[in-house]
Amino acid sequence: MSRIDDRLKELDITLPEPVAPVANYVPFVKSGNLVFISGQVSIGADGLITGKVGQDLSVEAGVEAAKACGINLIAQLKAACDGDLDRVVRVVKLGGFVNCNPDFTDQPKVVNGTSDLMVKVFGDAGRHARAAVGAPALPLNAAVEVDGVFEIK
Question: Does domain 3-17+30-152 bear CATH number 2.30.30.90?
Fold first, then answer.
């Protein structure tokens, strides 16, 4: 078992099977030592987390939805690394999209659900550049969607 797998176990995180694309794209692309992972929506253990954060969901529920996106990113990353998450050198950049109304301004707090997870799992290598923006709607009415760029060896 890898060091990162051990860390996931300590955090009581079980990675799901990577989610298949719902349209004409691939879940990830490797280019050199970078892995670009397509947006992962907020699918948790109980299914798709839907609705507008700040209207249908609290900020705290949005944070949990973003954490679910992060878990799905790591599941895709593990597939891209042929099952060995110890190949991850760095989380380079995350792009977070929050389904919300125009007057909602706590997108950074919500996307911290993914950012905090990356640091807990990968340590200093989990610190990353990021965008956190509001969206009037997301695919499948997902509460949150996050994509990412990762450096691997």
Answer: no
